[in-house]
Amino acid sequence: GNFTAIMEEGMAKADWAGFAARKAESAKQGKLRGIGMATYVEKCGGGNAEVADVRLDSDNEIITFYIGTMSNGQGHDTSYKQIMSARLGIDTDQMVMVQGDSDIVPPGLTGGSRSVTVGGVAVSKASEEIIEKGRAVSAHMMEAAEADIEYSDGTFRVAGTDRTMSLFEVAKAAGDPENLPGDMEPGLDSTVSHTPDAATFPNGCHICEIEIDPDTGIPEIQRYTVVDDFGDTINPLLIEGQVHGGIVQGVGQALHEHTIYDDESGQLVSGSFMDYRMPRADDVPRFSFSMRNEKCTTNPLGIKGTGEAGAIGAPPSAISAIVDALSSNGESPDVDMPATPDVIWALANRQLAAE
């Protein structure tokens, strides 16, 4: 990672230098304004092995892979297929991911931003093993030296010639033991287990700028800037979506969500979303999101985890912004989560009374 550069880039994109002028303008409107920064480093992507079981259907030209990680919104299907497509040169429309059925998929663990950093490596290694098996079979079929076989875009080719076999042609041929060199097992199917050597360490900088109306205690997020380091990336759009969702989750934790019980009876009184304050679309601005990536050195794909990043940086940056807005005369209040409007109103008016 390059932690200082991440922070400096975040400050530049958030216009940290211009904050004093914005704070003064808010004061003219009778509002309090604060800015908060949080930098984070997360250790993730370790743990047990993940297994990718990849099978080729040569008749229908379909690749099916079975994996134990379970997608619940992260986009595993897209990411795994992109990894496999990049190595095999086969269109993702010809791939099927099977997950969730414990009768047929390998054991797996979803959580800790480890699915693609561990499972993705297993998928990558299985794809490479398929190519190596196919190189041996195609060399045997085309009566060439294995070293002379090139592979790209789903095709095995004898170097310097027009003699080729497609991946699925080789897979079909590999089903017949008579087409196999030596004591090679029939088929190109591959099952690969990958155990991570070490964790990955995504990191980043979150900067939240909040304006508070002291008459109501309602905080309004005016700006939210985040710069993250996720190593090599597979699908930037999926990453941005995960970060956006994580930020909103973190903002909800910091400013809204509160489980309340009746003091007398112990009855939960915030038992539905009519009472339990979930963050909504108008609670957050458009996010300024960018990446400044440093290649990860602890896995072959060079990638780092993404899933928890937004939720890690948002609570401390939002609370720090509120503390900054409510600070005066060199004194800062203690602000616990959730910083709901009634809490902020009491602190804001205590500050104004002191002034």
What features would you highlight for this structure?
single chain, alpha+beta, 4-stranded mixed sheet, elongated
Measured between the Cα atoms of the first and last residue, the distance is 44 Å
- Strand fraction equals 15-25%
| Count of DSSP H/I helices | 8
Q: Which strands sit side by side, in order, in the main sheet?
A: 1-9-10-11
Overall helicity:
25-40%
Topology diagram in text:
Elements: H1 3-13, H2 19-28, E1 32-41, E2 50-57, E3 62-67, H3 76-88, E4 95-98, H4 115-141, E5 149-152, E6 155-158, E7 164-166, H5 167-174, E8 190-194, E9 203-213, E10 218-229, H6 236-256, E11 288-291, H7 309-326, H8 341-354
Parallel strand pairs: 3-4, 10-11
Antiparallel strand pairs: 1-9, 2-3, 2-8, 5-6, 6-7, 9-10
Write a structural description.
The chain is elongated, with a radius of gyration of 27 Å. By secondary structure, the protein is of the alpha+beta class. Helices cover 34% and strands 20% of the residues. It has a four-stranded mixed beta sheet with strand order 1-9-10-11, sandwiched between helices. A four-stranded mixed beta sheet has the order 4-3-2-8. It has helices at 3-13, 19-28, 76-88, 115-141, 167-174, 236-256, 309-326, 341-354; strands spanning 32-41, 50-57, 62-67, 95-98, 149-152, 155-158, 164-166, 190-194, 203-213, 218-229, 288-291. The chain starts with a helix and ends with a helix. It contains eight helices and eleven strands. A hairpin with a 5-residue loop joins strand 6 and strand 7 (164-166).
